[in-house]
């Protein structure tokens, strides 16, 4: 890989504010790729017969399937390909990838001299955000169902190498920066995020 690539990874549980933070990096002239969006597009096709194709369970299954069938670092490869194509026509400060969920993705970023940011948010705050703004294809869940679906990201699936599966505790443990986002006032988060970006 190009040694001059400046790569930022953003991780956190669902509805923690990853998109908001990534948008701020993009405004600061980083090229952005959502690993989650890549997975969602595949899930919509793979689970087309499900009334909720991008529920948490389907996204987890699709993400693991992609890594198993196309290589453990498939989502990072797609992100890098998009970045290489983009810099043919415009100069960027670097690449920001968000929704980092697998050990191999975290390790890829860090082994290439990048920064990995984890966004801390309580389960209650995330649930409130998720249910008040459901994406197309997402079901309404009780709090217990929300947590139970999410817990599939914490448990390795037998028969699939652990380094290619979602493992958010591992990703969190590798974070080089942390930022909290529990406030209902998005401007508070934006202020903290500006300070973080200045440090990077």
Major β-sheet strand ordering: 2-3-1-4-5
Specify the CATH architecture.
Answer: 3-Layer(aba) Sandwich
Percent of residues in helices comes to 40-55%
Q: Would you count the extended β strands for me?
A: 5
CATH H-level homologous superfamily name: P-loop containing nucleotide triphosphate hydrolases
Oligomer: single chain
User: What is the alpha-carbon Rg in Å?
Assistant: 16 Å
CATH topology category name: Rossmann fold
Q: Which of globular, elongated, flat, extended, rod-shaped describes the shape?
A: globular
Strand percentage? 5-15%
Name of the top-level CATH class? Alpha Beta
One letter per element, helices H and strands E, the order comes to EHEHHHEHEHHHEH
DSSP helix count?
9
- Tell me about the largest β-sheet: 5 strands, parallel
Instruction: Show unreliable segments.
Output: none
Overall mean confidence score, pLDDT: 90
Distance between the termini: 21 Å
Keywords:
Rossmann fold; five-stranded parallel sheet; 12% strand; single chain; alpha/beta; 200 residues; globular
Q: Describe it for me?
A:
This protein is of the alpha/beta class and 200 residues long. The protein has one domain (7-199): Rossmann fold (3-Layer(aba) Sandwich), CATH 3.40.50.300. The protein has helices at 18-27, 35-46, 56-70, 74-86, 103-111, 123-132, 143-150, 168-173, 186-199; strands at 7-11, 30-34, 94-98, 115-120, 177-180. The chain has a 5-stranded parallel β-sheet with strand order 2-3-1-4-5, sandwiched between helices. Helix 1 (18-27) crosses helix 9 and helix 2 (35-46) packs across helix 3 (56-70).
